[in-house]
Specification:
- This protein has 2 domains: 26-246, no CATH class; 331-590, Rossmann fold (3-Layer(aba) Sandwich), CATH 3.40.50.300.
- The protein is 54% helix and 13% strand.
- It has helices at 11-33, 36-61, 69-87, 91-117, 123-142, 164-187, 192-205, 211-237, 247-260, 266-285, 290-304, 308-317, 388-396, 418-423, 441-448, 468-476, 492-505, 522-537, 550-556, 574-578, 581-590; strands at residues 154-155, 239-240, 328-332, 348-359, 362-373, 377-381, 403-408, 411-412, 426-429, 463-467, 510-514, 542-546, 559-564, 567-572.
- The protein has a 6-stranded mixed β-sheet, with helices on both faces. A 4-stranded antiparallel β-sheet has the order 5-4-7-8, with helices on one face. A two-stranded antiparallel sheet has the order 1-2.
- α3 packs antiparallel against α4 and α10 (266-285) crosses α12.
- The chain is elongated, with a radius of gyration of 28 Å.
Length: 593
């Protein structure tokens, strides 16, 4: 067991229930103490706040800037109104309207998510899709004729049998429930994946996490929540219009989230309610100036309070949002995960034949043949530009176009994504430490286990289970004393050690290491070398190491492979390579070690 760290009471175990209880009281007495205008506007504002929460989860936590939540909201509202207008207004039909209001946006959310987040899509492409989607939905509404009311919308349909105060309480109750659920999720172990994707999606993929699938499902689920908000709006307002689906409304949601403080859950609620209520009041008194006033206020707030309204409120209230501290690390023994791709120790874990990779007319790799077996530590050396890192990429990403045979654990990896290859038993460490700066050390290590041990979506675990090999690295490097520290505060060497511990936590059969000792001190290099030797000699892990330091390579390698100008010029024992006249010639003419 690693020494326990200091524990603290997390925000969600104390302040969250108190805030939720207080909000319920306010919602219950609101219609009694507020005038009719305020109740009517705040009912709409609270529905908008539900929608703003979905924008915050996508943008504030996962880093996905979206303008499309308005379209899902409008689809939910129109599904409700169309059923009530054209199908029927009985309780059964209202229930049908509710189902369609939630299910239709979810199904379209799957489609939009797939279009936005297929493998190798870019954040810019996803944002463009979110811009186009509301425009398409709005045009469909305009062309819907009597079914959608075209530009006039739908009005006069039967709504839920509630008075104005009843709609206020219903909207408030739904907002509180969704806000609490959202808070619990983003603070849970599974919710940390949102931040990890925002920080470093590439590392997530190389931890065996299918981020594209996660973002597609997230989009669909939040589309369903937006559809629920649309259902509430259609009943509370009694009218739906094309403006409810449009790009302008989607932009307003982004503005409210930014002004309130993205990545806080509380901020978008404050932003949506505050700005919508203020706009409703100003639009009556200053119909031609209110938008200018609200816009100026937005600019001032962004400059003066970049953290948004949430930062102001939490500072005044004296509440913090410190992450849950880790009580202890529970160590479990290394267990081989069943996999059809794993092969016998006598067979090659990795097999490359006649590998070639070109960028246009420039040949980076030509005719590479290489095999590595269990327990081998093969060092890949050569001057800068020899193609070492490109070779590592070809082995760890099957979607990278290349010629020749590429097999891992007896299976071709052509067209396999990095997460698929990790599932075959491959871990990769990058030259520059690839970790999650916004998470704690413990959260990063837990992220590395997520593909193996499914995380909870309801709670943040106060223990951390690691295989013995990874736990040993954590102890040797002193990271066991920094489990609740932010990764952004770690030194270069500590980040390198953390990334290695994360890769080893995957329990890989083959590790790819791209200059793991770059920038480390001599003691740190010696420690890393000892760890690598123990992994290969004691646990039978195969390793391919890209390194420039021949002295370091000589101490730990079982074989050395030399690349020069994209070609494999030598593959032999340590002494054969180190004493080779060819190697000395290559280094003297192509760079230094």
């Amino acid at each position: 067991m690693v020494n326990p760290t200091r524990t603290s009471r997390p925000f969600n175990s104390v302040a969250l229930p108190a805030l939720a209880a207080g909000a319920l009281v306010v919602v219950a007495i609101g219609p009694i103490v507020l005038d009719r205008f305020a109740v009517n506007v705040l009912t709409r504002s609270m529905i908008y706040a539900v929608l703003a929460i979905t924008v915050d989860i996508l943008w504030g936590y996962a880093g996905i800037l979206t303008f499309g939540q308005a379209a899902f909201f409008g689809i939910g509202a129109y599904a409700t109104a169309i059923v009530a207008t054209h199908v029927g207004d009985s309780p059964a039909m209202m229930a049908l309207g509710f189902v369609l209001a939630v299910a239709t946006p979810m199904l379209l959310g799957l489609l939009v998510g797939w279009l936005s987040f297929y493998h190798n899509s870019t954040p810019l492409y996803a944002s463009v899709i979110s811009l186009v989607f509301p425009i398409v939905v709005t045009q469909l509404v305009f062309s819907g004729g009597v079914w959608t009311g075209s530009s006039s919308g739908l009005v006069g349909y039967t709504t839920l049998p509630l008075e104005l105060g009843g709609f206020f309480r219903l909207a408030g109750f739904c907002l509180i429930v969704i806000a609490v659920a959202a808070w619990i999720f983003v603070k849970s172990d599974a919710g940390k994946l949102l931040i990890a994707i925002r920080d470093n999606e590439t590392r997530c993929s190389y931890l065996g996490l299918n981020t594209s699938r996660f973002k597609i499902l997230l989009t669909a689920c939040l589309a369903g929540v937006a559809g629920l908000a649309g259902f509430l709006y259609a009943h509370a307002s009694g009218v739906v219009a094309p403006e409810n689906t449009g790009f302008v409304f989607g932009t307003e949601l982004v503005v409210w989230t930014a002004l309130g403080g993205r990545g806080t859950i509380l901020g978008p609620i404050l932003g949506a309610i505050g700005i919508d209520y203020l706009s409703a009041n100003l639009s009556g008194e200053l119909p031609f100036l209110y938008q200018l006033i609200v816009g100026a206020l937005f600019v001032v707030m962004i400059i003066v309070v970049p953290g948004g309204l949430a930062a102001v409120v939490t500072k005044i209230a004296g509440i913090g949002t410190n992450p849950t501290a880790i009580a202890s690390v529970t160590v479990k023994g290394v267990a081989s995960r069943p996999s059809a791709g794993w092969v016998e120790a006598r067979d090659a874990l990795i097999k490359i034949e006649n590998l070639g990779k070109s960028y246009g007319s420039h040949h980076v790799l030509e005719g590479i043949d290489l095999s590595v077996r269990a327990g081998e530590l093969v060092s890949l050396v050569g001057p800068n530009g020899a193609g070492k890192t490109t070779l590592m990429r070809c082995v760890s990403d099957g979607t990278l176009e290349a010629t020749g045979v590429r097999q891992v654990c007896g299976r071709s990896i052509v067209r396999l994504t990095p997460s698929d290859i990790v599932a075959l038993g491959v871990g990769r460490k990058f030259q520059v430490a690839s970790v999650f700066d916004s998470l704690t050390v413990a959260d990063c290590l837990r992220m590395a286990r997520m593909a193996i041990d499914p995380p909870s979506v309801f709670a943040a675990s106060r223990t951390l289970a690691l295989p013995l090999s990874s736990e040993r690295i954590v102890k040797l490097t002193g990271l066991d004393q920094l489990l609740d520290s932010s990764v952004s505060l770690l030194s270069h060497g500590q980040k390198q050690s953390l990334e290695l511990a994360m890769v080893v936590a995957l329990e890989p059969r083959l590790i790819l290491l791209d200059e793991p000792t770059a920038g480390l001190t001599k003691p740190e290099r010696t420690m890393i070398g000892g760890i690598l030797k123990s992994l290969t000699e004691e646990l039978g892990v195969a390793a391919i190491l890209v390194e420039h330091d021949l002295d370091f390579v000589r101490e730990i390698s079982s074989r050395i492979v030399v690349l020069h100008q994209g070609k494999l010029v030598l593959d032999g024992s340590v002494e054969e390579v180190v004493n080779s006249a060819l190697v000395k010639s290559v280094y003297s003419g192509g760079g230094h070690a």
